[in-house]
Fold this protein.
Amino acid sequence: MKYKKFITFEGGEGSGKSTQIKLLAKKIDISRNVCLTREPGGTESAEEIRKLLVRGKVDKWSSISELLLLFAARKDHIDNLILPSLKSNKWVLCDRFVDSTYVYQGMCGKTSLELIKKIETIIIGKFKPSLTFLINLDPEIGLKRSRRPGNKDLRYENMDINFHKKVYRSYLKLASLNKQRIVLIDGSKSITYIENQIWKKIKNKIL
Ligand code: ADP
């Protein structure tokens, strides 16, 4: 099922997702009707799982354990935050969602896309965002932006540069297969330029 007000943001590390999601939330939030959230995480329990995923050694999880942790967090997030918010007619802006799992664990990891699809079908069925902004940025630039002082959540950032280059290419492939839903945004432009591009799309497609 598609909820018009469920919008996700995707892209590599440091591409500008959280910057833009906050700016969009401000624009929409005339009557505090926006839920701004992220994956992995978003609820108290899912944030606990997040810590297990985004901290520590790059190779700390087997691919299947990592996949199950991601979907465990996602299930809690959907049931306890995303769906209740949408049902009370709020906008839900989410920093990463299932596309990230297809790209990071599937196209760039060791998990088969078939397995991800099966678990997705069991856990979340046909629930999808109506629109996804893919912020596209050279990973060398994104990683430099992302490694700011105080950022401890570096497990994915610390993966090899070739992994991040593959992430970049995989997102483009995923976008080409989902042209109706995924909107490509040039992350090398200024913050304000991108903010306006995103707002234009929202006005055309949703408002
Ligand atoms: P992400 O959420 O995708 O990891 P962030 O939004 O946290 O990325 O951005 C990472 C860093 O890059 C932040 O310091 C942010 O201020 C900066 N940044 C975001 N968008 C741009 C942009 N278009 N141009 C230059 N710097 C940017």
